[in-house]
Design a protein that fits this description.
By secondary structure, this protein is α/β, with parallel strands linked by helices. Helices cover 38% and strands 15% of the residues.
Length: 204
């Protein structure tokens, strides 16, 4: 479980700021769009699942938590999802700058914003209306929960990842979908962590 992992530099904002500062410089100099975390196969699997379960014809309002260079969202746009309904958030300014730069070269209207998911709700897209309940039809995570679980623990020894399921519950619309890919947790561990009596999340 999340509390069993020891803190690592991979769980620090400073690490990711350094990573994306370097990737942003590389993009400016040679057009390299940066690392595809977990590889292209993970992107393909997530897009295939999305197309089957949350079809683009439904125009789902979609947000990726920790979107990095935006690779997953660009793949969704290429698969037919309206780019104006796609949003990515990241707490690293460099990641957001990189994703916006790539979006401009691809002529994609995907939205990218700086936001710390554990602290703030993702900014709404222009077509969305604020609501006291969840507003996102589709929430994605490709490795961000892993990084959060490697963050520094509080004075009671609790990982910041313990706050994660509740935050997903807050932003996800009733009947919406949450899709996560992890390299640190098994399927059963993710189910135990996220689909609890304290959340509305139901495993499928």
């Amino acid at each position: 479980m999340a509390d069993s992992l020891q803190p690592s530099k991979l769980g620090t904002k400073e690490h990711w700021d350094d990573v994306y500062e370097e990737e942003l410089n590389n993009f400016k100099e040679i057009g390299d769009e940066g690392e595809i975390w977990f590889g292209e196969e993970s992107i393909e699997r997530m897009v295939d699942w999305a197309v089957e379960n949350v079809p683009f014809s439904s125009n789902p309002s979609t947000v990726e938590i920790g979107s990095g260079n935006g690779t997953l969202l660009f793949a969704l746009a290429e698969a037919g999802y309206p780019s104006t309904h796609l949003s990515g958030i990241d707490y690293s300014p460099g990641a957001v700058k990189l994703a916006r730069s790539i979006a401009a070269t691809r002529n994609q209207d995907v939205s990218f914003n700086i936001s710390d998911f554990l602290q703030d709700d993702p900014p709404l897209l222009p077509h969305m209306q604020a609501s006291p309940e969840g507003v996102w039809d589709f929430v994605l995570d490709k490795g961000t929960f892993d990084a959060i679980a490697l963050g520094a623990k509080d004075e009671n020894g609790r990982s910041p990842a313990m706050r994660y399921p509740g935050r997903i519950n807050t932003i996800l619309k009733s009947g919406g979908y949450f899709l996560i890919t992890s390299c640190n947790f098994t399927e059963e561990e993710l189910k135990a962590q996220c689909a609890t009596s304290d959340t509305r999340l139901v495993y499928q």
